[in-house]
Amino acid sequence: MAPRLRAFEPDTATKNCKQRDKWLCMVTQGDIPLESAHIFPPSLEKWHKNYTHSEDFWCTLRMFWSSERVDSWQRATIGGTERCSNLISLTSHVRNLWDMAVFGLRPVKMSSDQKSLTVQFYWLQPSSYCPRISMKSRPKFPADLQDAPENARICDCGTAKPVSSGDTMTFQTDDTDKHPLPSPELLDMQWVLHRLLALSGARDHPGTHLL
Question: What is the reported pTM?
């Protein structure tokens, strides 16, 4: 008799990610439908396989951020995207908002034993798309927002309270080898790139490829 096929069989990285996160969304503490979202996306990894594209990308970032900071991002991408440290558990709705750069997660502090990571949640207010913008324009990220400008809203399933800009969240793990926490360096890079995407207004511009 042929073996019975399972409807869904997660790969090792996805399974380890969900086990680490106790099968809960790390933003809402909801549990269904749960997905594993990439921090450094496979689409960007494929694009980076072209040496010229990769060098241009990192060189451009070094024009605006310190070499030490960008070097830490680049080192964190080594090893590919399918790793527990590059994944975070999110419900489908929250993941869609994350992929569209509607909100960002700013890494704050990793504990010395690598078992606890503190992050802050921020709604990212979009700007109108413009091919050029003055470098002197100061971006605005209002604090204490309870929903996105598009009326997107996320609530904590435990308290039923809306998740607001500035809210602090703590990610934890019991096994740093098998279930490492999300990489602070990758989260830092995605925090920067998500803000850039929101500020540029490009996330709603036709033909723009999201990160």
Answer: 0.83
